[in-house]
Amino acid sequence: MTITAAMVKELREKTGVGMMDCKKALTETKGDMEAAVDWLRAKGLSKAAKKADRVASEGLVGTVVRDNTGAVVEVNSETDFVARNEQFQDMVTAIAALGLKAGGDLKKLMAMDYPKKSMTVETYIKEMIATIGENMSLRRTASLKVDEGVIADYTHNKVKDGLGKIGVLVALESSGDKVKLSEFARQLAMHVAAANPLALVPEDIDPAAVEKERAIYQEQAQASGKPPEIIAKMVEGRLRKEFFQQTVLMQQVFVLDDKTSVKKALETAEKSVGAPIKVTGFVRFALGEGIEKKEDDFAAEVAAAAGGS
């Protein structure tokens, strides 16, 4: 039987499931609409779709490092309770490991085969949604690699090795002592977790963010009544001493001693490892950052629960 676009559309409207899954369901059931609905329900896909509009801002960030490659992923759930679920934790760990081969490509990672399952990562997440009963999503991934040197990872608010609320990767290129280099890389990863730099060097910061700060400093400086050329110097000075020192990794105060800059700490580490060190990149994922969380009316929630009991 030919599966038409109209049939796929009808099934999608009934179940809220994606077009490809609807087409597969209709193919498997030879175009029987009701049987296709049951097929999707049996696979847990229909149930998953109903939960897809729920805000998932909890969950875990997972990191993994193997040889000279590191990967980080953020997998979200609706509640912190699910993040403490061992099955959910195992899933995040497995997805992070796959991230090593995905190279930071989210679509590629979603399409990869889930370990020991005859399904993709995307499909396995849908099955977990149906099993656990909460919306979940693989939100993002990133990866770092060096030819010679080390990749270090660090997780903050750790619930298990490689799993926490903040995940960091740091990439250092160097031919120096690997053990000492790894020690410094981990310290730097801890710094990134705490200080949350925006960029490695000033040139990497979003120009819009720089202009926003410049405008604020400009407005404040104009109140001084000084000549325009003096105001311009004041503004640029504050950008260097305040904004860049707070947001640029190499200019930040190293949190492990709270005295020297990261640049100075790196120079000291170079003497220890016996070779130059180059920070080639860093990644910091904080769980739920940028997700607009729904503010629930607690009284209404209690009333609704009471009414439904």
Can you describe this structure?
This protein is α+β, with helices and mostly antiparallel strands and 309 residues long. Among the domains are: 46 residues, Helicase, Ruva Protein, domain 3, CATH 1.10.8; 108 residues, Elongation factor Ts, dimerisation domain (Tetrahydropterin Synthase, Chain A, 2-Layer Sandwich). The chain has 13 helices and seven strands. A hairpin with a 2-residue loop joins strand 1 and strand 2. Helix 1 crosses helix 2, helix 1 packs across helix 3 and helix 9 packs antiparallel against helix 12.
Short description:
The chain has 309 residues and is an alpha+beta fold.
Layout: helices, strands, pairs:
Elements: H1 5-15, H2 19-28, H3 33-42, H4 45-50, E1 58-66, E2 69-77, H5 80-83, H6 86-102, H7 106-111, H8 121-132, E3 136-145, E4 149-156, E5 163-164, E6 166-173, H9 178-195, H10 207-222, H11 228-247, H12 262-273, E7 278-286, H13 298-307
Antiparallel strand pairs: 1-2, 1-5, 2-3, 4-6, 6-7
- Mean of the pLDDT scores? 88
Number of helices: 13
CATH architecture of the domain at 58-165: 2-Layer Sandwich
Q: By helix and strand content, what is the structural category?
A: alpha+beta
Assign the CATH topology of the domain at 58-165.
Tetrahydropterin Synthase, Chain A
Q: Report, as a whole number of angstroms, the end-to-end distance.
A: 46 Å
Q: What proportion strand? A: 15-25%
CATH class of the domain at 58-165: Alpha Beta
User: Any low-confidence stretches, pLDDT <50, length ≥5?
Assistant: none
Radius of gyration: 25 Å
**H/E order of the elements?**
HHHHEEHHHHEEEEHHHHEH
CATH superfamily of the domain at 58-165: Elongation factor Ts, dimerisation domain
Largest sheet: 4 strands, antiparallel
User: What form results from the Cα inertia axes?
Assistant: globular
Name the strands of the widest sheet in spatial order: 3-2-1-5
| Percent of residues in helices | 40-55%
- Number of E strands: 7
